[in-house]
Amino acid sequence: MADGHVYDLLGVYLWWIPRRFSEFDLVKPFDRFWSANVDPDLLSVFLPWPLIAAFLSSIAPGSIGIDSGTGNGKYLPLDNRGSILTVGLDRSVNLLKLARYDAKQDGARSATLERGKEREVVLGDALDVPWRAGAFDYAISIATIHHLSTHERRRKASLIRAVNPAHGRIMIYVWAVEQDDLSKRVLPSADDAAAKEPGKDVLVPWVLADQQKAKAAGPASQASSELATEVKEESKVYDRYYHFFQSWELKDLVTEAAKEMGLHVGPLDASLRGSISRGMEIVKDGWERSNLYVELRMWARSSPI
Amino acid sequence: MVRLITHNLLACHVKGCDSNNFPLTFSDAEVEIRETEYNAEFLKGFFPKLEWKALVDSARQLGDVSLPETPPIDYDSNEEFLRALHHVLLEIHVQEGSMICPNCKHVYRIQSGIPNMLLAEHEVAGR
């Protein structure tokens, strides 16, 4: 990546912080920083909320799901008044400590750090399957897979192994190469982004602004002053990897992952060959506000027609 | 959190460990009981997906013997049973301790209520 691009991207960081709160994985100083600086008011503003909320609200009562790369767990409270349960998986223990309680929305900003309902969280890697086979009825992966640095790794994180092969449903959401006008995400020069090539690999530098360092030093407890010192000492530039997906790339990825598992890709259709007993339907896919998404549904038929 | 609802899903994923790797056995478990809201609709829908024997055995490891070896046939209308199931699945929290794979004996630690299912790169299946 040319130096000029790094410079462009530096201007983005303040905007990213609220929008992409949940995406820190192994950048420890940031974990610590956010553990002390939760500002839930900022979280919901720009999020791809409606699509995910609609997906979760369509899940049958009694279902159990996995949120792979849950971060601070912002989707865990969308539980249809307790009739479904989403387990949050992340590899940042500090973010999981936030995810395991709902933030109470009492109005006053200070009150939002009080503990609300408890959630289930598991420390683990989005590439692994630490579950019994097909344990989940549904799975979501929101702004997670684009942090994985190879095609192979992204394919392994597609969650097809985690869900029930007969009825499992999956929603995956990633950043797109095509950004809308409102987006401040800056991509390396768009003119070489030939549409047939895979998406763009970008390192987004993360910097802590002085203002935020001051905020981290705010509460006078011993723990937070230690934290502030650590943040200050380590507040340099941290590059975080992002893969911006081409429009066709997410669909290709899940198709490849399904075929690798011997699944037919397409809807369950009586005209399919009798030997086909399991499949994955791409229910819908599209582009929404600079992101690509795909919704999948597994199916199985016991006796070939 | 490690509640039994989550424990009923977790399996060992060490490379090559693909049979007898469920359920993980609790060891040195420190348990806290915390009440939570009862939702019959969730329990009725979730019940058929449970690995029943694993749930009963694991609850007993944690000192709770309220669940029967064989679930009642009328589980979806038996409120006494559903209340007991609610308690076992959602109100028993393992705060500290370990979960050990019955097959390969890998130890997964639980700290501050969070189970650590991370493995070293060379231990993981399918990487």
From TrEMBL, chain A:
GO BP term, pick one: tRNA methylation
A GO-annotated cellular component: nucleus
SUPFAM superfamilies membership: S-adenosyl-L-methionine-dependent methyltransferases
Keywords, in A-Z order: Methyltransferase, Transferase
GO MF term set: S-adenosylmethionine-dependent methyltransferase activity; tRNA (5-carboxymethyluridine(34)-5-O)-methyltransferase activity; tRNA binding
Pfam families, per the entry: Methyltransf_11
Family annotation (InterPro entries): AlkB_tRNA_MeTrf/Diox, Methyltransf_11, SAM-dependent_MTases_sf
Residue ranges occupied by any Methyltransferase type domain in the UniProt entry: 67-153
Protein name: Methyltransferase type 11 domain-containing protein
From TrEMBL, chain B:
Pfam families: Trm112p (PF03966)
InterPro entries cross-referenced by the UniProt entry: Trm112, Trm112-like
Gene Ontology annotations of biological process type: rRNA (guanine-N7)-methylation; tRNA methylation
Gene Ontology MF term list: protein heterodimerization activity
SUPFAM superfamilies assigned to the protein according to its UniProt record, in alphabetical order: Trm112p-like (SSF158997)
Subunit structure comment from the entry: Interacts with TRM9.
Membership in a protein family: Belongs to the TRM112 family.
Name by which UniProt lists this protein: Trm112p-domain-containing protein
